[in-house]
Design goal:
The complex is a heterodimer of chains A (about 325) and B (about 300). Chain A contains 14 helices and 2 strands; from the N terminus they run H-H-H-H-H-H-E-E-H-H-H-H-H-H-H-H. With about 325 residues, chain A is mainly α. A two-stranded antiparallel sheet of chain A has the order 1-2. In chain A, helix 3 packs parallel to helix 7 and helix 11 runs parallel beside helix 14. Chain B has a two-stranded antiparallel ribbon with strand order 1-2. In chain B, a hairpin with a 2-residue loop joins strand 1 and strand 2. Classes of the chains: A mainly alpha (about 325), B mainly alpha (about 300). Chains A and B meet through helix 6, helix 11 and helix 13 of A and helix 3, helix 4, helix 9 and helix 11 of B.
Chain lengths: ~325, ~300
């Protein structure tokens, strides 16, 4: 208990306090100040954050870039939309149950795909997943899975045991809860057995084998987990919008999410969330002002990558590290005097 | 299957295969110098098409001068691209950051093209066209083919052979090869590595732009042209990422395969083309062609 208190006190720094204050201010102020379309954009940005967190599993824990999340988001979204509107012949009234079913089904598909792609590594794996996204986006846009060119409309609102999420304000709070749960899940996953196995594999696969880590399956499990999270993001996207178009789950959308994760900082959960918020909301703000500002958006991405390759979070971390080093150096100087 | 159909498939397939080969040759040259794929290569295609449209239809330059202007602009743009993306990021510890920088460059080029030339697809005149602006055709047997496809195949093949000869036969090519293989050692024996990389980028970007110039008249000139880059990625990866010839052969394979698939399943050709990529990779996890020993960048 005493250790817990100390642990808590050591985290009670000025930086963390400011961070908490900013987050609290965000949660309280945003629904008061914005409404309608802008609030919807913010909700979608939080949905993107779930997607970005799923990519973060692959990027920071497995260590390879994977585009597959977009395909699994599409599968999850299509299943939710299809099952709630009776597109596949059966209609499930319980919206929460539908979300769960689609996540489980997507997980099963991802497990099989992961087993198939498991042989590949590095660039080959990345571009095999890119090929998979291309295949799936063609399936989505050309077959009837997503209702053809009209998409699927009339998806019911998400019903949480009687609480119907029928306006964007309720969605905002719900998404905040979901994001917190996802973040907790990922920070738990990092310290779990799977996370430590992945860490070992990332630094040296050969060593990991000698330590008894199941190298083959660990990657498949991580692949499946990211697919389930992507399916959650897809299902929530359908419920937020109430309809689904057949061309949104494309390679371009996937590259956008990669930009989110990298500008935010792929090693930090908070950074990824901030990145997906910025990259979703910024173009929306810029577009309404001047069309040439979209060019500047691209320039910002390049400059971010040049100045801080580990993203905004990495930049902040580096600054903190430098400040600490300076402090220690000063202490040393005073001691020398 | 009748003869006309086979001829159509072969000519269309070879022409598109050559386009993919041009793009993927540029891609693989950059891959060897930076270690990552360039996600802006497809936008180079769109930029090349837009710029050639502007010189031909906007400035009304005669064809040879227009083409020379285009080539100079493409090479210059390659230099700019190298200075903006490669130079600042060449020593980064996280390769994905270069990937994301090229994605940012892709956004910049795309939005700039849209600003300058608008969002409406433009119709570009074919290189050989009838007086009434429709693309000229020639007949073999009873079926007619657009000259443009034949031009693409011939120009593409010529360019690929030319660049290959430049890389393998000339002194500059040897220096570029040395730089791609091992930058430090090449610098140690006095190779101007920066110049070599600059030339590599100029050639690589120009090849993307030239393929845009070639396909402009077939498809409409728009930012949608950038979607061709996915097939070029597929051919580079199928070719084993280390081997220029491998990438060219796989590009031709993908072009022909796509032409065959288009006969019956035009709507689903993406499914087949990229399934081919996945199947090939699952069977041969490091691509169809081995990297030549010295080709490792």
């Amino acid at each position: 208990m005493k250790k817990l208190g100390e642990n808590f006190r050591s985290k009670l720094t000025a930086g963390n306090l400011i961070l908490t204050a900013i987050v609290l201010a965000f949660v309280i102020l945003v629904p008061q100040l914005t409404s309608g379309y802008m609030l919807k954009v913010i909700n979608v940005s939080m949905d993107n954050a779930i997607l970005a967190l799923s990519l973060m599993i692959m990027l920071s824990m497995v260590g390879t870039l994977s585009f597959s999340f977009m395909a699994f988001m599409g599968v999850g979204a299509g299943l939710v939309a299809g099952l709630t509107t009776g597109q596949f012949g059966i209609t499930i009234e319980n919206t929460l149950l539908t979300l769960l079913i689609s996540m489980v089904l997507t997980g099963l598909i991802a497990f099989v795909v992961g087993m198939i792609l498991n042989r590949l590594s590095g660039t080959f794996f990345t571009f095999a997943t890119l090929g998979f996204v291309s295949v799936m986006s063609c399936v989505f846009s050309q077959t009837n899975f997503m209702g053809g060119s009209y998409g699927i409309t009339g998806v019911p609102k998400l019903n949480l045991f009687g609480l119907v999420l029928n306006n964007q304000k309720k969605w905002f709070y719900f998404m905040i809860v979901i994001i917190c749960l996802c973040s907790l899940f990922i920070s738990r996953l990092r310290t779990s057995k799977l996370g430590r196995s992945l860490n070992a594999i990332k630094s040296s696969p050969t060593l990991a084998v000698t330590l008894g880590v199941n190298v083959v399956m660990a990657k498949v499990y991580a692949f499946t987990i990211q697919a389930v999270m992507a399916a959650l993001a897809g299902g929530l996207y359908v419920y937020i919008n109430g309809f689904i178009g057949n061309s949104i789950f494309s390679v371009n959308a996937a590259t956008n999410v990669v930009i989110m994760v990298m500008t935010g900082g792929f090693n930090s959960i908070f950074g990824v969330i901030v990145g997906s918020f910025l990259i979703t909301v910024l173009p929306e703000l810029l577009r309404s002002m001047q069309s040439y500002l979209n060019v500047i958006f691209g320039v910002i991405v390049i400059v971010t990558m040049i100045i801080c390759p580990t993203g905004i979070a990495g930049f902040v971390q580096n600054m903190r590290l430098n400040a600490n080093l300076k402090k220690e150096a000063r202490k040393g100087m005073e001691a020398a005097k | 299957m009748n003869l006309n159909l086979i001829l159509t498939v072969i000519i269309n397939g070879l022409a598109m295969g050559m386009v993919y080969a041009l793009i993927s040759m540029g891609l693989i040259m950059m891959f060897r110098s930076a270690g990552v794929m360039n996600f802006a290569q497809g936008n180079m295609l769109a930029l090349g098409a837009f710029f050639s449209y502007w010189t031909l239809n906007g400035l009304n330059l005669p064809m040879p001068i227009a083409i020379v202007t285009c080539l100079i602009f493409y090479a210059l743009f390659g230099l700019i691209f190298m200075v903006c993306i490669y130079l600042p990021l060449r020593n980064t510890s996280i390769p994905v950051s270069i990937v994301v920088a090229t994605m940012g460059a892709s956004v910049v080029v795309r939005e700039a093209c849209q600003l300058i030339w608008g969002a409406i697809p433009l119709r570009m005149q074919a290189i050989i066209s009838n007086p009434d602006m429709t693309p000229a055709t020639f007949n073999i047997g009873s079926s007619s083919f657009a000259w443009q496809y034949l031009i693409i195949a011939v120009v593409g093949l010529a360019l690929i052979l030319l660049v290959n000869a430049l890389l393998e036969k000339t002194y500059v090519g040897k220096l570029m090869e040395a730089t791609a293989q091992d930058k430090k050692t090449a610098a140690m024996i006095g190779t101007p590595t920066m110049v070599c990389i600059a030339i590599t980028y100029m050639i690589a970007i120009s090849m993307g732009c030239i393929s845009g110039l070639l396909v402009g008249p077939i498809f409409y000139v728009s930012n949608g042209l950038s979607s061709l880059q996915l097939r070029a990625f597929a051919s580079v990866v199928m070719g084993g990422t280390g081997n220029i010839k491998g990438a060219v052969y796989s590009a031709l394979l993908i072009g022909l395969f796509e032409a065959v698939i288009t006969i019956g399943f035009s709507r689903y050709k993406d499914i087949f083309v990229f399934s081919l990529l996945i199947i090939v990779l699952v069977i041969r996890p490091t691509g169809l062609f081995k990297a030549r020993v010295g080709d490792k960048a």
